[in-house]
Amino acid sequence: MKSSKYSSIMIISPDSLVEGRIIAKGDIEILGRVQSLEGDRTNNPRVVESGGNIIIHGEVVGDVKCVKNISISGKLVGNIVSAKEVLISPTGVVTGDIKTCRFKIADGAHFKGILDISDDINDIDE
After folding, report:
1. Residue 48: helix, strand or coil by DSSP?
2. Per-residue confidence at 1, pLDDT binned at 50, 70, 90?
């Protein structure tokens, strides 16, 4: 069986609530809400991890990490680690620290936290 030339994408629909961790090799698009499990006693607050891009139109409560780009036009409360770029759109709201190689924020977007920009991709991969 040949592998597909198209990357896979996971979509969390607008009316969905996901409690727990999402880990995907491909892209993730979040239109609904993702948050950690109630009473989760692990020391890992990361709720979304992607080997591709992450697009957040909905709401995420918890840390996110991806090896490509993260685009936020919704709301994220948590820390971000992106090996390439973080983009906060005009409607985006981020409360938490960001560690990335490139950062763009549009007029009207909100960001509260510490920004750490590094040229070394190995320094980003946590």
Report:
1. strand
2. very low
